[in-house]
Design goal:
18 helices
Length: 412
C-alpha cells in the first residue's frame, strides 16, 4: 500500500510538472514562432507549422510508446518522455530558425507519451471501481498546471522571450532525475505482453480502440469532445480579442478561472459526483453542460459572461475522467499502455485538426464589428460537436443500464 501511494503521488507530480512546463510556453511559443516571420499572415502560418508538428508526431508516436510500455514497463517510457521534453525546451530556447522549431517539435512529439503512460500507470495500481476518481486526480494536476504555468510563463517571457523554455527544460530534468531514482515500476512481469508493430501503428491502434468490447461508441465521444476542446484552445484568444477587445490580462484571468474550476471539480467534487451519479450518466450530464456552455460562449454579448459560464460549467470538467475510466475498465492489465496510447493518439489527431478549424473559421468573420454574434462561429461548431457526442453517449447508456446500477451500488 505504501508503494502504491508513493506511485500515485509521483504520477500526480509528473503530470503537474508536465502541465506547468507546457503552460510556461503557452504565452511565448507563438511569439517565438513569429520572430522568424515578417508579417502577421506569415506569423499565423509559422505557428500552425509549429503547433501541428507536435500533434502529428504525437499521433504517430503515442500508440507505439504505449505498446512499448506494455512490454518493457511504464517507467522506461516515462523517462524517455521526460528526456524528450527537456530536449525540446532547450533546443527551442536556442533556435535560430523556424525549421529548428518544427524539427524539434516533431522529435519531442514522437518521444513524448507521458500523459497516456501516466494514465496506464494509474490503471495498473488502481482497482477498477476507483479509476474514475484517480483519473480525476490527474485532471486536477492538469488544472493546477494550467493555473501556474501560463501566468509564470508570461512573467518570465516579459524578462526574456526564451527564459520560459529554459525554466521548463529544467523542470523536465527534475522530473527525469526523480523518475530515475524514485519511481517504482507499476507493471509486473506477468502482466506484460510482447510488442507488435502491426497493432502499434496509429491506424491499427485506433481501429482496435473502436473494437473494445462494447465501448467503441465512447471512442467517438472522446474524438468529438477532444476536437471541440482543441478548437477552443486554438480560438480563445483570437475570439475574445475580436469580439470583446480583450488583452493578455483578461485572457490570463479567464485561463486562471478554467484551471481553478478544473482543480475544484476533478480534485475535490468528482468523488462526490461519482457517489451520486453512475459513470455513464455522469458522462451524459458532462456533455449536456459542455454543449450549453459552448453555445453560451458563442452568443453572450458581454465578456464577463464568459467567466460566469466557466464557473457554472461544473459537470463539464468531469467528462474526461469519467470516459477514461470506462475505457480503461474495458481492457485487461496487459493492454493498458496500448489502450491509453491509442486514446492519446486520437487526442493528438484532434490536436492537429483543431488549430486548422478554429482559427480558419475566425478568418472568415474577422471583418465583422466587435460584438457581432457571428464571431462565435468556432464555439457554435464546438456546441454542435458536443451535442453529437451526447447522442453517442446516450446510446451507450441505453445499452448498459445494468452497468449504471452496478456502479451506483459500488459507490454507495
Amino acid at each position: 500500500m505504501q508503494n502504491r501511494q508513493a506511485s500515485m503521488a509521483f504520477i500526480f507530480a509528473t503530470v503537474l510538472i508536465d502541465m506547468i512546463s507546457i503552460g510556461l510556453i503557452i504565452p511565448v511559443l507563438p511569439a517565438i514562432a513569429g520572430s522568424f516571420s515578417s508579417s502577421q499572415a506569415d506569423h499565423a502560418v509559422a505557428y500552425l507549422w509549429v503547433a501541428g508538428a507536435f500533434g502529428l508526431a504525437n499521433f504517430i508516436g503515442s500508440p507505439i510508446l504505449g505498446a512499448l510500455s506494455d512490454q518493457y514497463g511504464r517507467r522506461p517510457v516515462l523517462l524517455l518522455g521526460f528526456s524528450g521534453l527537456a530536449l525540446s525546451f532547450f533546443v527551442t530556447a536556442a533556435a535560430t530558425a523556424l525549421w529548428m522549431l518544427v524539427a524539434i517539435r516533431l522529435v519531442s512529439g514522437a518521444m513524448q507519451a507521458n500523459i497516456s503512460v501516466a494514465n496506464a500507470y494509474v490503471a495498473d495500481i488502481t482497482a477498477p471501481a476507483e479509476r474514475a476518481k484517480r483519473f480525476g486526480q490527474l485532471g486536477a494536476a492538469f488544472g493546477i498546471g494550467f493555473i501556474l504555468g501560463p501566468a509564470t510563463g508570461g512573467m518570465l517571457g516579459a524578462i526574456d522571450l526564451r527564459l520560459p523554455f529554459v525554466v521548463a527544460g529544467c523542470l523536465a530534468l527534475v522530473n527525469l532525475a526523480y523518475g530515475y531514482f524514485v519511481l517504482p515500476e507499476s507493471l509486473p512481469q506477468d502482466k506484460r505482453r510482447a510488442f507488435d508493430w502491426r497493432t502499434a501503428n496509429p491506424v491499427s491502434s485506433l481501429k482496435k480502440l473502436g473494437e473494445l468490447k462494447d465501448v467503441g461508441v465512447l471512442v467517438v465521444v472522446i474524438g468529438l469532445s477532444a476536437l471541440a476542446q482543441f478548437i477552443l484552445h486554438a480560438s480563445w484568444v483570437l475570439f475574445t480579442t475580436f469580439k470583446f477587445g480583450w488583452g493578455p490580462k483578461e485572457n490570463g484571468l479567464s485561463l486562471f478561472a478554467v484551471g481553478f474550476m478544473s482543480v475544484l471539480v476533478q480534485g475535490f467534487l468528482l468523488p462526490r459526483l461519482l457517489k451520486r451519479f453512475a459513470t455513464p450518466r455522469l458522462v451524459v450530464l458532462s456533455l449536456v453542460s459542455s454543449s450549453l456552455t459552448y453555445l453560451g460562449w458563442a452568443l453572450v454579448p458581454q465578456g464577463w459572461m464568459l467567466i460566469v459560464l466557466i464557473v457554472f460549467n461544473v459537470f463539464g470538467y468531469a467528462a474526461s475522467a469519467a470516459i477514461q475510466s470506462i475505457v480503461s475498465n474495458s481492457v485487461d492489465a496487459t493492454r493498458q499502455g496500448a489502450t491509453m496510447g491509442a486514446v492519446a493518439g486520437l487526442n493528438s489527431l484532434m490536436a492537429v485538426l483543431g488549430p486548422l478549424i478554429g482559427p480558419g473559421l475566425l478568418t472568415l468573420v474577422a471583418h465583422l464589428p466587435q460584438g457581432d454574434w457571428r464571431i462565435g462561429a468556432p464555439f457554435l461548431l464546438c456546441a454542435a460537436l458536443q451535442a453529437l457526442a451526447l447522442v453517442f453517449a446516450l446510446s451507450y447508456q441505453r445499452r448498459h443500464p445494468s452497468q449504471a446500477a452496478l456502479q451506483v451500488n459500488s459507490h454507495a
